[in-house]
Amino acid sequence: MNIPPAPHGRLLSVNLAATAHFTNAKNQPSGIGKLPVAHPVHVQAPGPKGVGASGVAGDLVCDRKNHGGDDQAVYAYAREDLDWWERELGRELPPGMFGENLTTLGLDLTGALVGERWRVGEHVLLEAACPRIPCGVFAEKMGESHWVKRFTERGVSGAYLRVIEPGPVQAGDPVTIEHRPSHQVTLGVYFRALTTEPDRLRDLLAAGDALPQETRETIARRTA
């Protein structure tokens, strides 16, 4: 697919799990299996975690205790990072393979700052909220040995995004970074603090109000 240059990046695809075509080892359905769609898709804030599901219309979240909600409304993963994993694993990884709603091109998601805002197309404004922490369902879907450990060691988690201004998105939309906060809390730093470098947990507080309340509670609990 030929993607014309954009100011910062572009959506390569928008991916949905319209049905739970993947079930885990306990025979529980999951929305992790996503496929690209060709039509525009509406995004909006879904509501608090546990109540709201996906922020992407037509998408599926089965486990609302651990997924979905305003701070995990939209999940993005970079095509460049999928390409790295293709070389590492020796297999094709099509858009949506990691359960991402948005497969991006030309954006450094690991270097995105908590609270960074992206204009997608003409109408939608998204905000980087937190990294994705790998789980057992992700490992089952990938079918790779020691997947959670390998994904964690790589430290390239993708970005969970809040929806600040709703509207339609579709493949080919330009993505422009409209705002970058003055702190230095990237999603890469955030991910490592929650996984391999817990001594950096308090550093996350520099993100201020953009840091999810759930993470604030985790920091308070682990550093008490």
Provide structural commentary.
With 224 residues, this protein is α+β, with helices and mostly antiparallel strands. Helix content is 20%, strand content 25%. The chain has 5 helices and 12 strands. It has helices spanning 79-89, 136-142, 147-154, 187-194, 213-222, and strands at residues 9-16, 22-23, 29-30, 35-37, 41-43, 74-78, 102-105, 117-120, 124-131, 159-165, 167-169, 174-179. The longest helix is centred in the middle third of the chain and has 11 residues, at 79-89.
Largest sheet geometry: 7 strands, mixed, barrel
Q: Separation of termini?
A: 51 Å
Please, what is the average pLDDT?
A: 92
Q: Which range does the strand content fall in?
A: 15-25%
Count the strands? 12
- Written as H for each helix and E for each strand, in order along the chain, the element string is EEEEEEHEEEHHEEEHH
Oligomer: single chain
Q: Which structural class matches the secondary elements?
A: alpha+beta
Number of helices: 5
